[in-house]
Specification:
Radius of gyration: 14 Å
Helix content: 10-25%
Distance between the termini: 21 Å
Order of helices and strands: H
Number of strands: 0
Strand content: under 5%
Shape: flat
Number of helices: 1
Length: about 50
């Protein structure tokens, strides 16, 4: 059960891990950055028909 497909490539995870250490994150403090393809945001509700 994975909301976004396909599963992330290692480079995609590495970019998220490296972000807090880079200059673009200098004003980012005290935040959790889930890198889980939307699994954390799932509510268990069925998808809404378009």
């Amino acid at each position: 059960m994975h909301p976004l497909r396909p599963v992330a490539e290692p480079a995609e995870i590495a970019a998220a891990v490296a972000f807090p250490a880079g200059p673009d994150a200098r004003y980012v403090t005290g935040v959790q950055l889930p890198v889980d393809g939307g699994l954390n945001a799932m509510s268990g509700q069925p998808a809404v028909a378009e």
